[in-house]
Amino acid sequence: MTQVEASARPRRPGLPRPPLAALPAALLVVGLGLAPLALIAFWSFWRFDPATYWITPDYTLASYAALMDTGRLPVLLRTLGLSALTAALATLLALPAAAVIGLMSGPRKAAVLIALFTVPFFTSALIRAFAWRLVLGRNGAINQTLVAAGLIDEPLEWLLFSNFAVIVGMLAAYLPFAVVPLVLAFGRIEPSVIRASQDLGAGFWTTFRRVILPLVLPGAVAGFLFVFVVALGTSSEIQLLGGAGDSSISIMINDVMRVVNFPLAFAIATVVVAVAVAVLLVAVRFFRLSKLFEDLGT
Amino acid sequence: MSAGNASGGIIPGATAGARPLFWAVTLLGLALVYAPAVYLLAASLNPGRQLGLVPPSEFSLVWYQALGGERRLLAALVESLWIGLATAVVATPAGLAAALAYRALQRGRGAFFLFLMFALFVPGTIQGLGLSVVFKLVAVRPGWLAVAASHVLWALPFAFTVSLMGLAAVKPSMEKAARDLGAGPWRTFADVIFPLVRGAVVSAFVFSFLLSFNEYARAYYLVGRQNTLPLHMFGAMNAGTSPTIYAFSGLVLFGSILIVGLLGLMMGRRRGS
Fold it and tell me: Coiled-coil intervals in this record (chain B) (predicted)?
């Protein structure tokens, strides 16, 4: 909003030239991130060699055909569905929270709320999923409260080791991923736009629906996609909170690797990364997501 | 971050019921995030083997005292501390340098940002799997070095973002003044930029450490004989043998929250003064 023209930015003097300072990070991202993934994608077309327990160059789509085997496709689709549902719920929770932070709080309260939503990034997802076991279990906090209140006679069994538990666990774990881009989006709204709407006689909900929502849409889309992509790769919530035999893409990869079927594991990984990258690129292209982050650090 | 007056934000007036509704959803979100952790901590003070809440008068630290005897847990703890330190030592300067480069960029900032954020969106299992086969090729043995390498990639986006926010305190005019006074790029960095972003650098270091310390999916493919702490804890969680795991989980969780909270206070105070 403030910097329309990139060329209008003052040239910052005196620093090491940009490519040089970017070099360590770029080497790390390429060497440890992109290159291994590219190799995986390449090797997913090779064939498993039982003699050497490794792969031999024999270009084939066999691994991708094996993806369609019994039991594998449903796991892929189930993970996609759970991730989308979690992302939708997280976005619905994050929108009002970001509105409170961006519209209804002074700088101090906003800073505290942002901190509260950011702290979970730096805590153990494993432990937080584990903690839900205590809350949702047969003798957990929720069942005990409901029984004590006389609302139910028997503890609810479906609270834990169920899809419900997995979604609650993922929602709690990945909510911050939806809140942060929405807070950035609210921060980019010019207060004068809202004042103009109010001066023209619009009530809060009209202003919210017709002025604010369209302006924060990129943030909501970013939040949804961030949660979706992160949830795609989850394993601990399902391992700790899901029902017996529940699987996810990550768990399936671990299982396939246990029988050292490298090409199949690589094929699954390639499909997942391709989906994640495609989803992010589409979002960047159509919702101008990178604009959200351009003001950081200036 | 938010404009407007100090008391009420940019919509201080009537909101036709939106304010209580939005606050209710916000508190629900915070409860989802924090309530289980608080419950876990309270339950870990229960001296019995049957987990649940007991009245505060019966609180006991027996499970915390039992932690000292868990040799394998302590070995995993030490391993994770070292890996966390190694991760932070590499990720922090790389993130800061990348943030300086980002600011100096005339164009392509969005692309550069996404490039650096990329590791955030690759599932840990897949990144760990990819690194494990590459390391096998180049004869890097599974162990702390391999785990730390994967954690550097995981921590880098956070170290970069935190450094970038810290750099907002450095006004272009200050750099220009330093240059006009004859300082070269390194001198400007050492005498002008670094003192201004020291708090952010400390935060980036601590965040990188914590991200590594709590990471599980990548380490799964890269550990050697010695488990990292999250891997050891995952085993203990599913074994369900001893309530010490609850005590230790509570300790790690609230240790992490406390550290981040203290950092936040420190930075808030610096900004306020």
Answer: none
Counting every residue, how long is chain A?
Answer: 298
What pLDDT band is residue A3 in, cutting at 50, 70 and 90?
A: very low
ipTM over 0.90 threshold: no
Q: How far is B75 from chain A (nearest CA, A)?
A: 19
Q: pTM of the prediction?
A: 0.87
Residue A184 corresponds to which tokens in the numbers above? 């950035």
Residues of A in contact with B260 (CB under 8 A): 115, 118-119, 122
With residue A167 as reference, give the H or E element that holds it.
Answer: helix A163-187
- Residues in chain B with CB shorter than 8 Å from the CB of A293 are 110, 113
How many Å apart are CA B26 and CA B20, to the nearest integer?
Answer: 10
Tell me the residues of chain A between 224 and 283 that have a Cβ less than 8 Å away from chain B.
226, 229-230, 232-236, 239-240, 249-250, 253-254, 257, 262, 265-266, 269, 272-273, 276-277, 280
Distance CA A109, CA A116 (A): 11
Name B5's bridge partners: B9
Query: How many Cα atoms occupy the beta-carbon half-sphere of A208 within 13 Å?
Result: 19
Rounded Cα–Cα distance for residues B209 and B95 (Å): 13
SS3 B138: coil
| pLDDT tens sequence across B5-45 | 434 677 766 677 888 999 999 999 999 999 888 888 888 88
Contact B29 A187 (CB under 8 A): no
Whether the CB of A155 is below 8 Å from some CB of chain B: the reply is no
At residue B157, what is the residue type?
P
- Residue B237 half-sphere exposure, CB side, CA atoms within 13 Å? 25
Q: How far is A41 from B130, CA to CA, in rounded Å?
A: 10
